[in-house]
């Protein structure tokens, strides 16, 4: 329930008061680790990171205008794959920022990077966790929005923001077959 509150707080109030962004600009969304975010080890639960990144992603989409474009066209995003690497734990009441940016596209999906950062002893940003999201856009009326149509609406990424080769391999490696019958069984 608290994640729904965080999402609505950002989408309806906070995001609209922040500066607007270009489609490929970095969005910085501030959070604090709450008691409801903790696991039995008294640090932020690994699953909560993904939930909070959802809130940060919506903040980015509202601020860069993509949310309005999606609403007008009857589109909505869904996560197809995600991966995260942890460096340090977030503790109760620690303030942190999620830096979110649209990385680019392959032939089927959109890629987003999230970095969870806090200032180190010298005040420089230190990465606590880094995640990559592979998402698709669907039509409310049914079907997938082709990447070519997305790029017509959102524009192409800056030339110096080429999608890294490893992330394209990752996207292909983690994709499931279109049908259950096509999926090989590894469990016996």
Automatic annotation (TrEMBL):
Coiled-coil regions listed in the entry: none
InterPro entries the record matches: HotDog_dom_sf, THEM6_lcsJ_thioesterase
Family annotation (SUPFAM superfamilies): Thioesterase/thiol ester dehydrase-isomerase (SSF54637)
Domain of life: Bacteria
Protein name (record): 4-hydroxybenzoyl-CoA thioesterase
Native species: Agromyces bracchium
Taxonomy of the source species: Bacteria, Bacillati, Actinomycetota, Actinomycetes, Micrococcales
